[in-house]
Amino acid sequence: xxxxxxxxxxxxxxxxxxxxxxxxxxxxxxxxxxxxxxxxxxxxxxxxxxxxxxxxxxxxxxxxxxxxxxxxxxxxxxxxxxxxxxxxxxxxxxxxxxxxxxxxxxxxxxxxxxxxxxxxxxxxxxxxxxxxxxxxxxxxxxxxxxxxxxxxxxxxxxxxxxxxxxxxxxxxxxxxxxxxxxxxxxx
Length: 187
Description:
By secondary structure, the chain is α+β, with helices and mostly antiparallel strands. The protein has a single domain (3-186), classed as CATH 3.30.1330.60. It is built from 6 helices and 4 strands; from the N terminus they run αααβαβαβαβ. A 4-stranded mixed β-sheet has the order 1-4-2-3. Helix 1 (3-17) packs antiparallel against helix 2 and helix 2 packs parallel to helix 5. It is globular.
């Protein structure tokens, strides 16, 4: 593992350790997140094609890019975007979503584009748990992208957890909309 990846992982773990409430459940979630981060770093997620690398794991606070919501997206950008939904506390993809992801892989491979996968959750659950769940959702999509033939160096993962809801209302219909992953093709 590269020194930069170890530094990023260490920084994330130290930064999050100061914000965590005590308790066995939180410790287990932190351990799972640390395993996820190390696993993704070991597989090369987040590496760019050039000499520089981008972070393997980012939270909403770390990501300074402005995300345009689906409703405000220009038509040309909609062709470069895919949204997949998840069930409550799940990172399982439907057969229909897998077919859509296969089409995105074909586009990305043809144009040699990078793919950014953003994982989101609904507002249910704590912030730390939702960041971890959002990451698991992004990782599930990234794993499928790789199985369909996309190079791991072309994939970047971001977890926003519950920080950027598609529907800000506090009702079950909104929660269903917010349990998602967004796949963006980038030049």
